[in-house]
Amino acid sequence: MGLRSVLAGVALFYGSLVHAASSFSPARPPAIPLAVKGPYLNSWLDVGSDGGNGGYLAGEWPKFWTQQITGWAGFIRVDGKAYNWLGAPPGADLVDQTDFSYTSTRSTFVMNVGGKVEMNITFLSPVTPSDLRRQSLVFSYLEVGVHSLDGASHDVQLYADVSAEWASGDLNAIVQWDYNSADGVAYHQFERQSQQPISETNQLPNWGTWFWSTKDVNGLSWQSGADTDVRGAFINNGVLPNTKDTNFRAVQDSWPVFGFANDLGSVGSASVSTLYSIGITQDGAINLLGEGSDLTTYPALWNSYFGSAVDAMTFFYNDYDEASRLSTDLDNKVASDSLAAAGQNYLTLTSLSVRQTFGALQFTGTDSDPLVFLKEISSNSDIQTVDVIFPAIPLILYTNPAILNYLLKPLFLNQENGHYPNTNAIHDLGTFPVAKGYPDGSDEPMPLEECGNMIIMVLAYAQRTNDNDYLNQHYPILKQWAGYLVDEALIPADQISTDDFAGSLANQTNLGLKGIIGLRAMSEIAERTGNTDDASSYGDTATSYISQWQGFGLNTAANPPHATLSYGDGDSHGLLYNLYANSLLNFGDFVPSSVYDMQSNFYPTVALAYGVPLDTRHTYTKTDWMLWCAAIAGTDTQDTIIRLVAGWIDSTPTNKPLTDLYDAQTGDYPGGLQFTARPVAGGHFALLALP
Fold it and tell me: Could you give the count of Cα atoms lying within 13 Å of 597 in the half-sphere of its Cβ?
């Protein structure tokens, strides 16, 4: 049985808005992805009781992950009476939402409008990992179907707008706009009047052009202007005057909006569909300190495929049938594979993770030389954080391993060109969207963490693509990092790991294991590149270290026995998630099966209401690391962990895009930490990435 919630009486729990009860399938997530296709096209509906309305599209403003409103409003007039179906503008009664469901690429709402017509509203953000032309387009679809509910025909008009809030994190910034049509597509375009390329304000871009589009058909009318004027015109008249407001002004000065109205005529039992698209184009996308001594501006990848921004926009809009087909293929693949691997609870989690992960990626470069940049959304906005790419790789490997190459390329370009002085691997490349690195070596110090991560990821890519030339190309710096592991992996110094929020600690059992598996990986890299002496040396060292590690880090005298958080602290324990890499790289009994069995038997004994704590220092946990542990556990433990996480999704009070960090006892955010929309959700695909 899958999770399916019916929330009745939500007004008591979620606030003053009164809704008829909606069903939610396969779960009621903490936030619903609406348009999620890149770091800047990242709009969600808050759901959880910490600040959301329970999952109802009408009566709540969609928001960027920072919680800035992305103004998006919809009305429908049925036989002269207006209803609100999207956003929270005043002036009309709310439609009654009867159902919500999600897949990997879609969020779908079903609305009852006065008992007369039904609306099927689908937000589709295509994910096409093997088709970079389509994946490069930072656009998303909104399709609205309307049909009669009572057997009678009804006179229907449909309205939707977006506001200038999409275009700037500074609400005092002046925005300019225009209206036009091309290739059968009618569109509003809008942008900051003062463009400041490759910079942000409050996490939103200071450059680029936004497009809000629909089909240029008979019965379409449009208007740009103040929110109350444009929306009021539709509510009162059912049609817009086809006029452009020429008073370019600040985002919050009489709130400019860009509206479309469609006269659907007499609507009967046959569904009448209207399609919209929203998206952003940017010419330059990222600055990187790589080749040469100055920053290089990398173009957004769509520029390789399309001659202009309008060409890109109209292609996307007119490509809906194919994009929808490709999205359905991915939805079905994730569903069938997840169900086969671990059942409906697992699909509840994986299908919520796809858009979130790819929504943190910026595709740049050229079609012959693509680079993908990752934004560490919400935790600190770093660019190319190695230990954020690392937990995300299960989804990348599952969908297209080549993307891992494109993600690692900027890190190699920076370090192999002499821009980083330390012998260990760098932690990140700076703050998105400027990847200037750390020529002074002052990045966050996670030396053991990142050396292990880089070597493990490089081999994971090479194993799946058989790209040994890639290993040869990077062999000198990989060998440098492996040398660091030889010196430091067995007895980790006092340092932070990827879970930096938990604090620094010496002799971390899990961190040491990562470094040792990294050495075993380097042995295979050396073997694949014909460096047989190195292969033997790294292999012998790794074998020696893993034997010693078991003596240092396992409390076999405990009942039940378990790995410790740190060497010698017998009462401590934690998620031994780095063990997953041994399985991901198909190293078999390099780490003995007894270690797997021991941890699998142990985790259920310390599980709390919503999961297994990260370690003994706190009651919080991490979804990515729990799923890494579940992927290599026995069936009962795997099912237990997945059931607890799926149950948390369906009941957590958190109200922002899926957090990977929460209190395993309460299900809420841990004190002072609200991770949201982070790409580490790709780690939920741990079961599906195993060889």
Answer: 5
User: Cα–chain-centroid distance for residue 518?
Assistant: 27
Task: Tell me the C-alpha to C-alpha distance, in Å, between residue 83 and each of 42, 60, 120, 255, 566.
Answer: 26, 14, 15, 21, 59
Give CA–CA dist 457/517, Å, rounded: 11
Question: Residue 19: pLDDT band by 50, 70, 90 thresholds?
Answer: low
Is the peptide bond between 433 and the residue preceding it cis, with omega within 30 degrees of 0? yes
Q: Tell me the three state secondary structure of residue 505.
A: strand
Token pair for 409: 């390329």
Strand blocks (E) in 303-385: 361-366, 369-374
Which structure tokens are listed for 436?
């200037």
Q: Which two tokens stand for residue 425?
A: 């691997």
Alpha helices in 502-558 (DSSP H): 509-528, 532-553
DSSP one-letter code for 61: -
CA distances from 171 to 211, 253, 341 (A): 19, 9, 47
- Dihedral sign for Cα 210, 214, 217, 221, please: negative
For residue 597, give the amino acid letter.
D
pLDDT value of residue 89? 98
Query: Rounded to an integer, what distance in angstroms lies between the CA atom of residue 263 and that of residue 282?
Result: 33
Residue in 490, 383, 507 with CA at minimum distance from that of residue 444: 383
pLDDT number for residue 661: 98
Q: How far is CA 369 from CA 272, 299, 406, 429, 526, in A?
A: 43, 11, 8, 19, 26
Residues 31, 656: Cα–Cα separation, whole Å: 5
Query: Strand 81-86 vs strand 93-94: parallel, antiparallel, or unpaired?
Result: parallel
Q: pTM here?
A: 0.96
Res. 4 pLDDT band, cuts 50 70 90: very low
Contact call for residues 437 and 419 (beta carbons, < 8 A): yes
Q: Which amino acid is at 117?
A: V
Phi first, then psi, for residue 223 (nearest 5°) are: -165, 145
227: helix, coil or strand?
Answer: helix
| C-beta of residue 481 within 8 angstroms of C-beta of residue 454 | yes
Give the bridge partners for 259, in sequence order. 161, 223
| pLDDT at 18 (0 to 100) | 52
What sign does the dihedral 224-230-234-240 (CA atoms) show? negative
CA–chain centroid gap for 678, Å, is 6
Cα(37)–Cα(34) distance, integer angstroms:
10
User: Position 440: which residue type?
Assistant: D
Q: Each residue of 306-339: pLDDT tens digit?
A: 999 999 999 999 999 999 999 999 999 999 999 9
Asked if the model's pLDDT at residue 9 lies above 50, the reply is no
- Structure token digits, residue 663: 């209190």
